[in-house]
Write a structure and sequence with these properties.
Blueprint (H helix, E strand, L loop, with lengths): L1 H51 L4 E2 L1 H7 L6 H17 L5 E5 L3 E7 H15 L1
Antiparallel strand pairs: 1-3, 2-3
Length: about 120
């Protein structure tokens, strides 16, 4: 009798392990899909703002996402500093945008971002 109980428990444990593994794989897939959807939504929001004329300003990271440019946090900060310098030289105003990571970040005229990102691309090639 004890042997039968142990066998039954072992079979149940094997089945539960397989089910748990399957749910783990499905959960990973769902999380991955959500992450991808979040990225797509962010890009669409930036594109919508640009197309709707809501703003001719953009953050460095938003501009890079819109244009399919991968950029590190440090490089984004560096480009922001350069964009700010150009804005001061040309007497352009800086915008402010709420950011979930940093609280508030600057936004810059698209024409300034075109300039600094072009220099960045030449530097990284």
């Amino acid at each position: 009798m004890t042997s039968q109980v142990i066998d039954l428990l072992t079979q149940n444990l094997i089945q539960l392990t397989a089910i748990n593994k399957q749910y783990g794989i499905e959960l990973h897939s769902i999380i991955s899909n959500l992450s991808e959807q979040k990225k797509r939504t962010e890009v669409l929001e930036v594109k919508f703002d640009a197309l709707s004329g809501a703003s001719d300003y953009c953050t460095v990271r938003g501009y890079c996402k819109l244009n399919g440019i991968r950029i590190s946090e440090g490089d984004a900060r560096s480009l922001g500093i350069k964009a700010g310098k150009i804005c001061r030289q040309k007497s352009f105003n800086l915008g402010k945008v709420q950011d979930e990571r940093h609280g508030q970040v600057n936004s810059y005229p698209i024409e300034v971002l075109d300039e600094v990102v072009e220099l960045y691309k030449k530097k990284t090639q």
